[in-house]
Amino acid sequence: MRIRLITKLFIATIILCLFFLTIYSYTVSIDHKQSFSDDDIVLINKSTLNIIVILSSIFFFILLVTWRFDIKQMNDSAKKSYDLLQQENTKLSLIVKSRADELQQSKAELDSFCYSVSHDLQGPVARLDGFIQLLQSGCESIKDEETLENLSSVRKNIDNLSRLINSLLAYSRAGRMAPTLEPVNLSQIVSARVDYLLLTNPTIQVDWKISKDIIVDADFKMMVIVIEKLLNNAVKYSSTIDNACIEFSSTSIDEQLVYFIRDNGVGFNMKYADKLFGVFQRMHSDTHFDGVGIDLAIVKRLIQRHHGTIWAEAEADKGATFYFRLG
User: Fold this and answer.
1) 232, 297 in Cβ contact below 8 A?
2) Most Cβ neighbours (<10 Å): which of 139, 161, 220, 260?
3) At 324, phi and psi to the nearest 5?
């Protein structure tokens, strides 16, 4: 700081010297022509000019030195700022990594807990159902209708509980599955699932539109589950309308290949679309459509295991389209 102040004062002094020398030279040339000979005036002007050139050279030299000094200070300051930024960036990266590791550990622990609870509850629930069946058999012999009705209600709730447990177990397993990539013909999986649906439920009246030979690199078993649950979902929510139509095909969105299953069923309000893939989230009452609200959450997990994404577009009473892409 002191060096820069001294430099500024020195430059100001040189500028003043140049100014006074110029004035002096001009004064001599004009006012003292009679006191000095022409040769003296020429000599004075030359001397003044030489002094001005020397002082100007010193002036520009000092400017150059000062400029280089300022550049060095700027470089040093920039380097310190860069080093400080790198240190803060390293600290931030470590914090983010630590939080991500904690989140991943918590997620793994939650999955493990969910799997353990679901698995361990299967046995007690099955035994409880067996005891209720024995009670029903005993009550049938004594024709106690009220007790039979109550026991039937209990068995229905046990069945719902069993389905919830099995769904949680399937959800947990979906998060544990490691995909083995291979060429998979999604069109063949869709066709096979449609044949199974028609075989097990001949009353299904649907106009099927299936594009041929849509092949992806994916895990075959996972894709079977994805297609199964998406088709079941489309069939379920198209079952209450006439002229039901379900389509499987692919398209390009944002220059990326996307696969979709579309139906013209009851659809849903897009206002609630963010809840669609949550666990135990339902768009419709279970009095109208059966289910526990976890199948789409399983589908999302399996798609994410392929580093892909899934989303839906729908309109109430006009059907829904489920899109997914694989990474």
Assistant:
1) no
2) 260
3) -150, 145
- Say whether pLDDT at 29 is over 60: no
Mean pLDDT of the chain: 79
* Residue 257 bridge partners (DSSP): 252
What global pTM score does this model have? 0.60
Beta bridge partners of 314: 320
Burial of 72 (0-12, 13-18, 19+ CB in 10 A): exposed
Closest Cα to residue 176, out of 108, 230, 252? Answer: 108
Per residue in 127-173, pLDDT tens?
777 777 777 776 766 666 777 777 788 887 777 777 777 777 777 77
Tell me the percentage of the chain whose pLDDT exceeds 70. Answer: 71
Tens digits of residue pLDDT in 209-233: 999 999 999 999 999 999 999 999 9
| Rounded-to-integer distance, Cα 184 and Cα 223, Å | 8
> Which residue's structure tokens are 């790198």?
86
Dihedrals phi, psi of 325, to nearest 5 degrees: -130, 150
Closest by alpha carbon to 17, among 44, 51, 60? Answer: 51
Contact 289, 320 (CB under 8 A): no
The single-letter code of the amino acid at 257 is L
Inter-residue long-range contacts of 153-160, CB under 8 Å, 24+ positions, other chains counted: 155/129, 158/125, 158/128, 158/129, 158/132, 159/129, 160/292
Rounded to 5 degrees, what are φ and ψ at 265? -80, -145
Provide the H-helix boundaries in 177-317. Answer: 186-200, 220-236, 295-305
Please tell me the predicted confidence (pLDDT) of residue 2: 47
Q: Residue type at 320?
A: A
Q: In this structure, are residues 128 and 186 in contact, taking their beta carbons and an 8 Å threshold?
A: no
Contact 280, 172 (CB under 8 A): no
One-letter amino acid at 298 equals: I
DSSP 274: G
